[in-house]
Amino acid sequence: MKMATPDFETPKLANVLKGYTSLIAGHVAGVAQGGIAYLELARPHRHNSFHEELWIEFPKALQELDAHADTRVIIIAGQGKSFCAGIDVGYLKRNFAAMAPATGVPGRTPSAATAAAVTGAAATTAPSAAAATAATAALPGACPGAQRAIIRRNILALQDAYSELERCRSPVVAAVHGRCIGGGVDLITACDLRICSEDATFCVKEVDLAIAADVGTLQRLPHIVGHGVAMDLALTARTVGAAEAHRIGLVSSVVPTVNGASTGSTTHGTSSSGRGAVVAAAVQLAATIASKPQLAVQGTKRVLLHSRDHPLVAGGLDYVATWNSAQLISNDLITMLGGGGGARGGPGAGSGAVGGTGRVPANASGVDGDGSGDGDGGSNTATVRVCHPRPRL
Fold it and tell me: In what ranges is there compositional bias, type Gly residues (predicted)?
């Protein structure tokens, strides 16, 4: 198994998670605050489009980063010219070909969700094209209800891969450059904060592919940009530039570039696009958040998500009262009330008091053209069985 490798724009990581072939994950080195985890999609030749392995590895890496004692904030970025171009079109075409006999309607292509979900069903490893074809060979005579049940289970599993971003205790920052299409929009809307470079573009592409987006955009985007704007973007599938993305609230800031080079720097060199700049800005933003009391940051994320999903004010007030009754008393709060200023690493910033942070040092360890035909960004589905959902904390 060949592990994914960093390029000259990947930040230097103090520790790198092992065993991942389609992404790079670890903790950013050389940041005074520490605690900044980093996950980089590493399929630049396919514009970081999601295929079987990436659907499996993405939630697994998030869980591993979030469980790490040193993680306070997580950054999501992508290698190459694009942040994420949705599903890998080659895999999508193979699924379409495999599903053709089962559609029952001549000349009609099944949805990406249908195509991806039926093939391989409950596979725990990425199937080959031959395996996908074999898996669908018997479908025409199968029970239609059973087929649809399989489709539904797989769509739910793929939704769960992106919902892992919300289940992380630590806030997640999306650092977007280049194209962010289809499944890429599903991904960033599940993040807590989004920033982008000047060259970033966004597109909810699914309607052009005759499907309804099914992995989170239609549920989360209205809460970010408003119902009317979300309806516009989803029904027209138009491309939104960085300036408009900022104006409508899809991103909180746009990171400029200067003379075609990155305004931020990376360990390995300068950028010819906005990637280096937006990653550097994301690290700065993450450092600011990481400097805050950890339990307060985690609680704020959880309460805001609860209020979004349970919009009644009375319920939200009851929820935050319950949360703070469990975690309000912490070493960080004692330090604040004692006049210690609350800086990380100051007096009382360890374990011992009720709700203390108890941090432990990290274990150290060691493209082509415009991408047409690489990742269509449309469907966000694949034939995989991803990790089981974790309970919310």
Answer: 344-358, 368-378
DSSP alpha helices (H): ranges in the chain? 52-67, 89-99, 112-118, 129-136, 144-167, 183-189, 217-225, 227-236, 242-247, 275-290, 294-309, 313-327, 331-337
Q: Which amino acid is at 158?
A: L
pTM of the model: 0.76
Active-site positions read 87, 183, 186, 206, 214
pLDDT tens, residue by residue, 285-337: 999 999 999 999 999 999 999 999 999 888 889 888 888 888 888 888 888 88
Output the six-digit token pair for 167.
Answer: 């289940």
Q: In Å, how far are 128, 187, 233 from 219, measured between CA atoms?
A: 32, 12, 13
Give the span between the Cα atoms of 334 and 316, in whole angstroms.
26
Q: Determine the 3-state secondary structure of 187 from DSSP.
A: helix
**Which structure tokens are listed for 268?**
């390995």
List the domain boundaries for the chain.
1-293+375-393, 294-356
First to last CA, the chain: 34
CATH number of 294-356: 1.10.12
